[in-house]
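Minutes, methods subgroup
Present: GH (chair), OT, SY

1. OT presented the first of two proteins processed in the latest run. Sequence and structure tokens recorded below as shown on screen.
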Amino acid sequence: MRAYLRGAFPSVRDVDDVVQESYLRVWRTRLTQPVHSARAFLFKVARHCALDLVRRAAIAPVEAVGDLERLPVIDDERDVIAAVSKQEKIRLLAAAIDRLPPRCREIVVLRKLECIPQKQVATRLGLSEKTVEAQVARGEVLCERYLRRHGVNSLYGHDGA
């Protein structure tokens, strides 16, 4: 069976795993129903197992990694807490911006999120630069108040959220 699998499925790395899984599936099947031709059934099961591996490899290829210590994996509980905290802060900031008055929200989004210069925002919206500046300041104050009410004292430091 190993020779058959190696010839028919050269991309399968560990043929022994396929053989073992095949035997296990045949054994489980025999517990629930009779198997008339064990050899034919075993090869059929092995073919299906190998095809499953080939399909999975095509969908999500596994790449060999030399040094596991260098992988950027979060393994520190503090890192997990910090990541969750950051996501929560972003969610709260988005909610704060969403609750701004419409014109103020539009100006804050253009200036702070899209990084469009104040002069261009003023021109685009037909406003004076002073109005844009005032609306940005108002938006910042309103967002800061919202965040503080929800336990966020700083978007960058380790605080309540």
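2. SY then presented the second protein from the same run.
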Amino acid sequence: MKSFSRVLMTAVFAFLFAAVAQAQSYPSKPIRMIIPFAAGGGADTNMRQILPEMNKQVQGQFVIDNRPGANGIMAAEIAAKSAPDGYTIFVATNSTHSANPHLYKKLPYDALGDFDPIGMVGQTAPVLLKGAKLNVANLKQVVELARKSPGTLNFAITNTSSLLSTEAFKRAAGVKLTNINYKSGPQAVTDLASGHIDFVFGDMATAGGLIKAGRVQPLAVASARRLAAYPEVPTVAEAGVPGVEVEIWVGLFAPRGTPREIIADLNQALIASLQLEGTKANFATVGMDARPMATQEFIQYVRQQYEHWGQMIRDAGIQPE
């Protein structure tokens, strides 16, 4: 019995020593940051804005790995099955961690069980965008056109935020629309500007350049308040269709079991990056609010959003696939 106790204590001390040694030498190689959306999308743009400061804070190098498609399912699975050593970070969103568990009967990852939350990056909301070629000036005219010609207006669906916004809009306005699935936001916005589709609930980070060029126009934001960077764009409720409020969030996660010391270091690096005035200004230009959070606060937020999105999806009448 004494021999077994000594062996057990030796193993415990060896494990603790290895964990401390790893944390002290971290990082000793590049850190892969998996983003479940295409380059140029909202989450990708936001992370590229803060990576220089995060590199500085952790004295390392983050390498972005874009894995778009399937509402982030493939990327989330890769991240969930990666070694919990601090060298894989997942840029999760409301799609991967709030909506997918309620949209699909079976997922290859557990949104709450397979990840350790690190911290919040920011929040924004979908904006109803139209191509400049389409002859409507406001949301009221969109509703009138949709009622006049049911099912003829095409809405691009690029992720769960655009899906839920579109379905909530259909329900609230009492109109019939046609959903067109896209693999990425940038592709949908490009087609929007070219007149291949009529509308998309997208993000300002993706559409900002085309908005400035006058090729895409924002009509309304699906949130309770206007975006600070676009104060002239009304909310959907202000434009005459109440009941369409969808919160987009972006946060960092690690595979479950990542050492707590590393989680703490990454959280501190993230907070420091988000608190820079330059970061706040850059985020504001694309309609994103920087939201630094301690890890424990973020854990509670993720759980709350999980329940909230489940309820919204059920209220919208969307059946899991």
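Chair's summary of item 2: The radius of gyration is 21 Å.
Next meeting: continue with the remaining queue.
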